[in-house]
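Re: beginner question about structure tokens

> Can someone show what the tokenized structure looks like for a real chain? I only ever see the sequence side.

Sure, here's an example I had lying around. Input first:
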Amino acid sequence: MAVSFVTLFQWRLNSVLLQQENEILLGVKDQILSLVSKLDEVGSFLGDPFFWTLHARETAKSFLTLSKPKLGKKGKEQMVSLIRKLDEVTGVSGDVERIWACYKTWVSEIRGTLREADDYVDDFIVKVYGETGQDRKESTAEFGSEIENIKSRVSEIMNRRPQLGFSPNLEEDIKKLLRSKFDEGTLLVSCMLSYMNLPYDLKLSLLFCCAFRRVYRKTKADLVRVLVAAGLVQEKSGELREDKAHENLERLVDLGMLEEEESIWDSYSVPSPYYEFSLSVMNAEDFFISTENSDSMIISPMARHVSILEVANTIKGMNNLQHSLFVSAKDGLSKASSDCLRTVLHNAKFLRVLDLENTLLKSLPDEIVKLVHLRYLGVTHSKLTELPESIGNLRNLQTLDISWSESEIEASNGVLNVVQLRHLKMYQSTNDGEVRVPQGISRLRNLQTLEGIYAGGGIAKELGIMTQLRSLEVRCVSDDHADELYVSIMKLTRLQKLSLYVERVSESCDSSSSLQYENSILPCLESFSPPPLLQTLELEGRLIEIPLWLGSMENLTKLQMCYCHLSENPTTILQFLPNLKYLRMFKAYKGRRMDKEFFRVGGFPKLEYLYISSDNLVEWTEIEEGALPCLKQLSIFYCMELMLLPEGLQHLTTLRILDMWCVHEDLIRRLSPNGGPENYKIKHIPLVTYEGDMSHGFWGR
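And the corresponding structure tokens:
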């Protein structure tokens, strides 16, 4: 971890060179590159095999202390044995504690210097942005001098670096240790050494993922945006940092250190023991403090990233050096918590990431729009009624997420001044969920994500100019702008995700009616042609017939069809989609019967998640043996008329989860493990969950 803060500061300097106007930094470019070179020396020293060994030893000790109550005898023996081995490898076991103490003191000094330098860079960028002419030249010259001073301080600290004395074969001994074949009894040791050997960017990404475990969970796209905003992804000319962050998450999945939540699509968690190892690093390094109760937390003054889940009455112990602050509440913030939050924000001069979840704020605190370094602002599950014009002060903001507002909200003209904005996510739980954006939204040339908008009033035409968009969600789609909207969407050749929600006809809005959306027809889809790179498609609203172009979407991996009320079998077209992994049909089909024609051998070759909800479905007769070869999860929701699960379900050997919610009691009785005659169809499934009137009798959530 020690080398990571050096690397992050190097990335920061390189990012400054890439982002700022050439004429501003032309005179100090050489000084910046010279400092980057000096930091290479520091990184090389901190990356020495000896320090790797010391850090591994400290992590093992921290993990042992943190997890001792949960570890069995074998687990404790493994950790103690590993610490002993690491001492043997260094060849200076009698002196390890003294050397480690000396090393920590030195690292603390270099880290403090670079943190101050990082904050100085932030201040310079804000200052020079508003200057012109001679003032800008003087500020830039002053910045160059300070960069030279920082380099001199780093050189002085390097001259005082600890003297290393260790076995000349240390590097080879470490390689042997990493190559060791661990049997099942030493799996914990194997996992830890794999974790310790992660590249620093992956390890930092993993630490951030740990902040969103359990009730406070993020999708992959959310995680990507947070990692980019927090500066944990290296910026390179001509590349999108979002792509690199996505790649890092996929690598963690491949390594088994990050896994998809089996019950929630596109959501991730850090499994044990990697979660515990990450907590150990957080505990030892004060890099990221995470707690589930603000009243009991102790925050180190060195901590830059803080996460408070289920915040209670106060937010105590905050310093003004935070770069990331994540706050979630159970049922909104108390007045005491709200007052404390405002105080924290007033002092959080260098805050880059602010995520407020379920705080139920009615207005955006004035302190937020003064956070000029802010790159990520999430205020979700709130009661916001407006975005102030002053939101335009946040000129470095990359992500603005105001999803799930409980009140009607509009985006102000101030949004148009947030020129660095890359992701704008909005949704209100009133009306059709649409949020009106100001005309001129196409001026935001960096925007990749635009979700929750109403496309009437000329906005549909503007969308055709925004060819950089990757994700678009349009709500309240109606005849008056549908043609223009579809023409614009067909120009968005980089689009990967598209969501279209119809305008609901008022008389069909009774949520208890099986005919909900029956009169709300998604218009003009026959003439539509989807962009070629589209991977996710969400359609909500009645379809007269299933669009034929759906069958040609070779890149589609996720399809959601809600309230489509199709009379015909939609799978006759959908089964030929070669890469479809997720299919959600919520009242998509209004027929009473599904037979083997729905899921045949050869169809849906990669489908992993299947979600079915229908008020009308009475019979599901058969799944052909050999069909659905990759299915992992089957969810059956609100199918109150369905009495039997299909014959052939017992042949789906890959099925791991059967999730049932609000289904008929007779169906549950037949499936019961206590002598149910249909239990043979599901007894091979590892996890069966059910929620309804009989939950306590058989399975539960």
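Each token stands for a local structural state, so reading them left to right follows the chain. The chain has a mean pLDDT of 85.
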